[in-house]
Amino acid sequence: MLDICGTKPGRKLIKALASKVTKITIQPGRTSQARWGRLNSSGGGWLLEIAIELSENHSYYGMTNIKVVHEKSIASTLFHELIHVLHALDDENIYEGGSSIRKNMIEHMTNLEEMCTITGFCYDIFRKRRPLKYVDILSESAFLIAKNQPGRIAHRNPNTVLIADAKPLEELPQDLITPYCDWLEAEIQQRLNIPKSLYGDIESLLKFLDENPYAGRSIPPSFWDSEEFALRAITNTELLEFIPPKFLSNTDFIKKAVQRNWLIAFIDSPLLSQKEHVLSILNLLSPTIRKNLYDKLGPELQQDTHVQSAAGISKLKQ
Ligand SMILES: [Zn+2]
């Protein structure tokens, strides 16, 4: 713990945890992992159990001007587990489901939660358009660099994912931050931009967008000229926000689109104020989601008896 509190990232982490966690138990384990739960059923503080693997093999892939394998301390493993805990207790639920998310992933990172824990980069925080807080970017790599070690670039055991040369610590460059940030930025850019080589191959391009939906904003404008491309793209929920207005004001397009992805029915379209359009879309939706669309309509349409019966709304409840 002394090792952790001797660094600025460490002090920030412990301060953030101290405001939420009542007790942390740390013990040896066969693998390193964190578990947490409420102190009692009515809420109260959080109780934590962290197991740390004590074997000597704590090597990891780090980034200097080349990729290198390094030994790491048990303190950085503990730091890593404590960040998982911080994410789990996050009030905004930004990291919720992170261990099951494998989109827009940097290679060798396993899942979103590991990527955020290791690199400090979480795209969803940037999408929230709120000022960044120091805890948003707390990461195992920030701690490693504060300890004068290279930032980490892979989650899995180095023996299984990458081939690289070990480099003695004394040969490391003075500045460990720049190469790490350059590496991270290049990795992120690769996932935010469709490679030009895919422009001529729609199938591969759609596959790339499936794996990297945040690259949606880099779809070339000319692609949206094609209704067929737009209809293929809307099967990917993350691309809904990029659909051009000309399609959103086209009844025919919306009808075809709803049959491929019903979520499009909830997109703010100028057509949502037109009774005939709303009625025809309600007919395409399953009863369970008709009510959701109804809730999104303006007061005038909500009062309309035809709309109410198409949405399955009982007049008595109004
Ligand atoms: Zn982890």
Structure description:
This protein has 318 residues and is α/β, with parallel strands linked by helices. The protein folds into two domains: 191 residues, no CATH class; 118 residues, no CATH class. It contains 16 helices and seven strands. A four-stranded mixed beta sheet has the order 6-4-5-7. A hairpin with a 3-residue loop joins strand 4 and strand 5. Helix 2 packs across helix 3, helix 3 packs across helix 4 and helix 12 packs parallel to helix 13. The longest helix is centred in the middle third of the chain and has 16 residues. The site of zinc ion has 4 residues, from helix 3 and helix 4.
Briefly, what is this?
By secondary structure, the chain is an alpha/beta fold. It is built from 16 helices and seven strands.
Largest sheet: 4 strands, mixed
Bound molecules: zinc ion
Radius of gyration, in Å, reads 25 Å
As laid out across the biggest beta sheet, the strand order is 6-4-5-7
Average pLDDT figure: 86
The helix/strand class is alpha/beta
| Low-pLDDT segments, ≥5 res | none
N-C termini distance: 60 Å
N to C succession of SSEs: HHEEEEEHHHHEHEHHHHHHHHH
- The outline comes out as globular
- Tally the helices: 16
Strand tally: 7
Which band does the percent of strand residues land in?
Answer: 5-15%
Number of domains: 2
* Share of helical residues: 40-55%
